[in-house]
Specification:
Layout: E1 3-12, H1 16-27, E2 35-37, E3 42-49, E4 52-59, H2 65-73, E5 76-84, H3 87-96, E6 107-108, E7 114-118, E8 128-132
Parallel strand pairs: 1-4, 5-8
Antiparallel strand pairs: 1-5, 2-3, 3-4, 6-7, 7-8
């Protein structure tokens, strides 16, 4: 598995506009437009920070994992995302190591990407997302 770098750090929030404008006010960094991802039950936006991003995630409904996170912990860091060159190969490699996965197969992520999550039980409590960017 080849890790290409840190893609983003994601924060669960209850108000996308509030957190997006906060970064613009504090640092002069404008957030991307808001994207809705019904498959993952979230609305999201990104703030570009050099060669990585900060992702804000807001639940679309009470069944969203982000809603449950917010109810339990409040707004805050949700996961880190590592960019990989081949997500299917990465999943095969992790499964061969008996790593507990949330996603057995890649699923649709933001901006046409493929994503999969490693269960925090296998990572010392850190939720890690793997992402392969849209290649065409």
């Amino acid at each position: 598995m080849k890790i290409l770098g840190l893609h983003h750090v994601a924060a669960a929030v209850d108000n996308l506009e509030k957190y997006s404008s906060l970064f613009e006010t504090l640092f002069g960094i404008e957030a991307s437009s808001i994207e809705t991802n019904p498959a993952n039950k979230v609305a999201l936006s990104f703030v570009r920070l050099g060669n990585s991003e900060l992702e804000f995630l807001k639940p679309l409904d009470d069944n969203s994992p982000i809603y449950k996170f917010l109810q339990k912990r409040g707004p805050g860091i949700h996961h880190i995302c590592l960019l990989v060159d081949d997500i299917r190969g990465a999943l095969d490699e992790l499964k061969a190591k008996n790593i507990n996965m949330i996603d057995q197969n890649p699923r649709q992520g933001a901006n046409g990407s493929l994503i999969a999550f490693i269960h925090p039980e296998s990572t010392g409590g850190i939720l890690i997302e793997l992402k392969q960017e849209n290649i065409g």
